[in-house]
Every structure is written in C-alpha cells, then in structure tokens.
Amino acid sequence: MIDGEKCEICGKPAKRYLFASFLCDDEACIEKARERRGGPGGHKKLKILDGM
Ligand SMILES: [Zn+2]
Questions:
Q1: Domain count of the chain?
Q2: What is the pLDDT of residue 7?
Q3: Which candidate in 6, 11, 21, 22 could, as Cys together with 33 as Cys, close a disulfide (CB 3.0–4.6 Å)?
Q4: Ordered DSSP codes for 25-44
Q5: Tens-digit pLDDT profile for the chain (52 aa)?
Q6: What is the rounded end-to-end Cα distance, in angstroms, of the chain?
Q7: CA pair distance 43, 52, nearest whole angstrom
Q8: Distance from residue 37's CA to the centre of ligand 1 (Å)
Q9: Residue 42 in contact with residue 29, Cβ under 8 Å?
Q10: Cα of 7 to ligand 1 centre, how many Å?
C-alpha cells in the first residue's frame, strides 16, 4: 500500500502507481486509468470496429 494515497478511480487505498495515477489492485480501475490516459483507448475502438 502507498502511504496516504487513494485509488483515483474508486477511492480505495492505493497499491500501485500506473499510468500517472495512483490505483488499487482492481483490474477495472487499472483499465479505466489506462483509457483515461489516452493511448491504447483509440486502439481498442479500432479493434471493435474491425470485428464488426
Ligand atoms: Zn480502484
């Protein structure tokens, strides 16, 4: 656990620092932080369109 920091997505105590955000160990939070940062978010949309 990171002292005094909270997950920026759900507000639980932070356990890691990823994508320029403090995050807990919930994969959903990690995914949201990744999308929020941009980058792979656009890639995901392209993959969805590709599959249709
Ligand atoms: Zn969280």
A1: 1
A2: 96
A3: 21
A4: S-HHHHHHHHHHT-THHHHH
A5: 778 999 999 999 999 999 889 999 999 999 999 988 875 545 555 555 565 5
A6: 41
A7: 15
A8: 15
A9: no
A10: 5
CA angle (43 as vertex; 7, 33 as ends), nearest 5: 5
Contacts of 36 (CB under 8 A, 6+ apart): 19, 21
* Ligand 1 centroid – CA 48 distance (Å): 25
| Domain membership of residue 15 as a residue range | 1-52
Whether pTM exceeds 0.85? no
Distances (CA, A) of 6 to 1, 12, 21: 9, 5, 10
How many Å lie between the centroid of ligand 1 and the Cα of residue 52?
31
